[in-house]
Predict the 3D structure of the following.
Amino acid sequence: GRPAKYPKIDFCKDPEVICASSENKELKWIAGEFYWMESVQTYNEGGWSYIAELRKFVKGGMTGTSFINGVSGIVNRGCHNPPCGT
């Protein structure tokens, strides 16, 4: 009953529309940004906090691969120190 940005899309019926839509390509970016905010920026597991590690990385001159590898693990496998379950 309320106004919606994408009233013709049924995300429950066809969740693949997020990546497959040629008409609404921005959906992929919106979903990616939501995931980044909800899962990556808030990540704090096993003594590894995204925010704390980001600060260390920046303060250290943004050198090395530890931070990048940790973030890659979170995005691709669900944890900062793969292998892990997703």
Remarks:
- The longest strand covers residues 44-45.
- The mean pLDDT is 92.
- The first helix runs from residue 17 to 20.
- The chain is about 50% helix and 5% strand.
